Amino acid sequence: MNFRIPEADSPFEIVWDKLGIPHVYAKTIEDAYRGMGYAAGYERLWQIHLSCAYANGEASALLGERFLTQDSLQKAFNVPGKLDELPSSEGDYIAEAYLQGLNAYVRSLGDIPPEFKHADALPREFTMLDIAARYRFTSWFQHKSWTEKLVLGRLMATHGVDKFSDHVLHFSDEDINLIEQLKEPLKHLDPKIIELAYPNIKVPSFSGSNNWAVTGANTISGKPILATDPHQPFTIPSTFFYIHLHVDSWDAFGTAFPGVPYFMMGYTKDIAWGLTTGFVDCYDLFIEKIEGDKYKSQSGSKKISVRKEIIEIKDQSNREIEIKGTHHGVLLEPLLQELGISRLTDSTYQTSLYWSLQDIPTSGGALSQLPLARSAEEFRSFLFENDVCPLVNNIICVDKESNLQRYIATTMPNRKKTTGSVPLIGWLDEYDFELAKADQLLVEKNPKEGFSLTANNDTMGEEGEFYIHNFPTHDSRADRIREFLVENKKFDVSDFCEMQLDLKDLHAQSILPDLIKVLASSTNEDVKLAVKILNEWNCDATIDSAGPCIFYPFLDRFWPRKFMYKVLADDLINALPLGAPGLNRFDISTFLKNKFWKTYESSLVNTIEEEIAIVVKRVKKSLGDDSSKWRWGDLHKIQFKHSLNKFDDWKELHLGPDEIGGSPTTLGMAMHMGKGPGKTEEDEIPCRVYHGPAYRLVVDLNDPEHAKFVIAGGNGGRVDSKFCLNHYATWLKGNYFTLNFNREEINESFIWQFKN
Q1: Beta bridge partners of 445
Q2: Distance (Å, rounded) from C-alpha 113 to C-alpha 27?
Q3: Are 382 and 369 in contact (CB under 8 A)?
Q4: pLDDT interval class at 579 (50, 70, 90)
Q5: In angstroms, rounded to a whole number, what is the distance separating the alpha carbons of residues 361 and 390?
Q6: Domain ranges of the chain
């Protein structure tokens, strides 16, 4: 089929292979990206339209009033990035070419895609501001560390620092001093603030990923190998869009958010790179002392800034929101009042929130040049153009010469006086800070071990210049990767594929001895059965194991808040949503070792016994009394549907339910939700897996034209696409496809020809 893009430099083509991957064969870089934009529009136009609405704070206009809080936050903190002017980038020409292709597709539309009809909306053309907003939205939404700071500060102020400081990744004497100085205002913080971070709406969730690379000295081929598997919600269509670009001797394969010309993960013949969620601390809470329409600073009183934002709401009148702020950021309590979430009861102390990108414009062309890098060093220069990076990720890049670098890819505060674990004093200048420079964010260069890894763990350690994060996830996945990589062997692609599927749970392995010890003296028959099953479990979260049937539902019910709430009787314990990382480093061993918590050991034992007994009873209800027949796969099933599956056009677009192994802390990651065993209605899944590896990629730079790759669902996004679900069965079995770059090797599905 022949198509026209007026701006094209010369004719080019897009070839869809049988896997659903578009391959753009062009004569110029610009045309390659024009093809990328056109293909993204064809497969994912509604997804692009919707994500731009989220990023621009315009979701209410598209979908209705339930998005008012989210839109208000977006505009309050300038997530759309609408500052005085959009800065230029060396990559602007790439972004402009991408938009030309995307908008050419929009202009070519005849019939409106069904999603738009359902939403009573019309497609539109996109701009550089849209791309910049998408970058910023990703940074804004990936990790809300400020809620953990708020909860931790309040709990410490109310109940004492000693009860919690041992369980924070980094904590200093200065942090203790802050708690003492802010004790009274922290005690009276409005817990409703947390609702601002986690409004009850459907937005992308970013909570994981595994990523590692080894140099050629550690491989059979003699060239570096990289493995990456980003963890995302299981959705139809996929969160990511996968594409191959070819120009002369340059090939690039990677994944991007639809509507953005940035390869988040990918490879060329020269380099390979992957990323993980970094849990980067780009937020700070300041307690401000308010005096009427002014706030206190070290140099005297300053006027509170006031501005108004208009939120358009579908089928309703526009809503005007008043935003108040200090030089640190937006005042949260007045915003709560504006949104009707909570009343302003005490105006003496209020909380301002700082976000590192709130006053910094970012270009739509940022990061577009990454696939053009010929080395890890050049990749770094593209990543941190002008010392600004609109991400919050760990990124590993390795080049064909085995130069290996790991970066904290972000724009963030360089806190000199405090770790950033708790709220700061707003009226003292000593707690203000500057932003970190790019050279401070290169955290690893050619490590002597010959490998680098990240898995949402603490990636900075104690030796960094400043604190990158205080609330990362457990180290278990990272430790498991390290166990493999320190083996005295040469690796190949198959080794890394096996690692991505590994189900050994080191987190369970660390907890189980203490758990069994606590339960060992129980006389309850259900508890004794649990002890027997857990003693026999090897901590592999396989579908045929019985141990996970008890262990993971127990974690869901108990961990750690029930016991903490029992002891402290503080409602803020339960304020954070499940899965939020603020209290995730509490476990049985920390309760048993800390002097304060150990005082309540008998209460701990009783709580654990009660919860285990309840879990066993519920598992019996779901799986029967014969524990020899209990299987994790019978409780733990994967299922995902199109977001519009209730409507006829999308009813057939669903996957599962299918049994699956794993847990949030295994390399073969599987995060679940649901009512749990014994509580489900007919056809409900007790532990429904909704989040995990969106795709798996392993590439050897000795043969980058034939990498191993598989998508959790498929690359298509259209209701009539045969590529929406075509990878699922292979992914579920733990198998891979081989990617082909060479035109003559591609098993073609269809071809589009383009001309100018």
Answers
A1: 405
A2: 31
A3: yes
A4: low
A5: 10
A6: 506-539+546-630
**280 close to 143: Cβ distance less than 8 angstroms:** yes
Q: Which is it for the CA torsion 189, 190, 193, 199, positive or negative?
A: positive
506-519 vs 601-623: helix crossing angle, rounded to 10: 110
Q: How far apart are CA 555 and CA 514, in angstroms?
A: 14
602, burial (CB in 10 Å: exposed 0-12, middle 13-18, buried 19+): exposed
- List the structure tokens of 156: 């410490």
Confidence class for position 203, pLDDT limits 50, 70, 90 = very low
More confident call, 466 vs 393: 393
* CA dist., res. 143 & res. 494, Å (int): 33
Sign of CA dihedral 197, 199, 205, 207: positive
Distance, in Å, from the CA atom of 57 to the CA atom of 321, rounded to the nearest integer, reads: 13
Give the angle 516-521-522 at the CA atoms, nearest 5°: 90
DSSP string, 333-379: HHHHHHTTS------SEEEEEEETTTT----TTTTTTGGG-SSHHHH
669 three-class SS: coil
- Say if residues 81 and 361 touch (Cβ distance below 8 Å): yes
Bond prior to 237 in cis (omega within 30° of 0): yes
3-class secondary structure, 631:
coil
As to burial, measured by CB atoms within 10 angstroms (0-12 exposed, 13-18 middle, 19+ buried), residue 192 is middle
Q: In what order do the strands lie in the sheet with 210-214?
A: 451-454, 210-214, 225-229, 695-700, 708-711, 737-738
pLDDT reading at 355 higher than 80: yes
